[in-house]
Structures are given as C-alpha cells and as structure tokens.
C-alpha cells in the first residue's frame, strides 16, 4: 500500500497531527472525527508509528480502520487518537498488546453503558413528565394518588406427621 492511496498530505512542511473539530489538516470539510479518510502512510506519520505496525494492529483487531472501495485501509481522526493511546500505554505504561486490547474493549463497553444509562434517564424523565401531566388534569388527580402496596409473607411450617394406617 503506497502513500498515494487517496487522501492528500496535509499542507505545510512537516505533517501535524490531526485534531477533532473544524480545520483538521487533510480532512475534507464534510468529514468528522469518525470519517475514515487518511491512508495508512498518513495515519502512520500522524501516529508516529510505522505503517507495518498499523497493519499488524489491524490484523490482531487492536485498531481496525475503515476500508476504501478498493480494500485499502482508511483511518479516521478517532483511529489515529486510538493509535497514539496504544503507543502511550505500550511505551509509557508497559502494558502488553493483549492488555491494551482488553482496556480498549472495556472502554468501549463503558461508553456503551454510559450511552444506555443516558437513554434510560431520558425515558424516565419523559415518563415522569407524562405522569405529572395526567396528575395535573382536572378530575384525574384522585385517580393518581399513590397506593401503598403491601405484601404478606406466609411462612410454612411443617406440622406433625400423622401416623399412617399401615404402621
């Protein structure tokens, strides 16, 4: 895979690392941080790694970029940030690749759970709002008084066994 796979090199002498937001070097104006636009050579330069390292990370499922219609790898700004984090964890923290992969998986799971929690909190707010609307309607307030529900617990105790007729 050569450097001429599509995306142009950022302008200026030395390539600067991409950053999320408007005006990302080499990022088309219609793209965001999740849009896969950078070819492997540019992603390698932005992340400070060799292209072969990026290929091996893709093979083991550590950082899996998008693919162009011809099959070439295309990295997003988020992918490049993840590559940098992989490098930091490896070099500065001494974490092996299996550990880094697990960390990434757990961070994704936390993100998904955080998103789901936000959805549930939103649903709860809507339900509370609907209940309040019903309670505020004339003539309906008495229908929506809280009802205290109790549950009784019955404890079964075995009685004495009756003598059998056979005994």
From TrEMBL:
Residues 37-106 form the HTH merR-type domain. Keywords: Coiled coil, DNA-binding, Stress response. SUPFAM superfamilies: Putative DNA-binding domain (SSF46955). It comes from the Bacteria. InterPro entries: DNA-bd_dom_put_sf, MerR-type_HTH_dom, MerR_fam. Residues 103-137 form a coiled coil. Residues 1-29 are annotated as: Disordered. NCBIfam families: HeatShock_HspR (NF047375). This is Heat shock protein transcriptional repressor HspR.
């Amino acid at each position: 895979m050569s450097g001429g796979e599509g995306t142009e090199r950022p302008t200026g002498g030395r390539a600067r690392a991409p950053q999320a937001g408007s005006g990302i070097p080499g990022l088309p104006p219609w793209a965001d941080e999740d849009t896969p636009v950078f070819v492997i050579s540019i992603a390698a330069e932005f992340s400070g790694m060799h292209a072969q390292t990026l290929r091996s990370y893709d093979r083991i499922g550590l950082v899996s970029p998008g693919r162009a219609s011809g099959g070439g790898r295309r990295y997003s700004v988020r992918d490049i940030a993840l590559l940098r984090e992989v490098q930091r964890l490896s070099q500065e923290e001494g974490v092996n690749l299996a550990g880094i992969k697990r960390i990434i998986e757990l961070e994704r799971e936390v993100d998904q759970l955080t998103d789901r929690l936000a959805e549930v909190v939103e649903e709860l707010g809507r339900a509370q709002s609907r209940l309040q609307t019903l309670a505020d309607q004339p003539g309906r307030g008495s229908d929506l008084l809280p009802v205290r529900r109790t549950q009784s617990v019955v404890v079964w105790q075995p009685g004495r066994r009756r003598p059998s007729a056979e005994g």
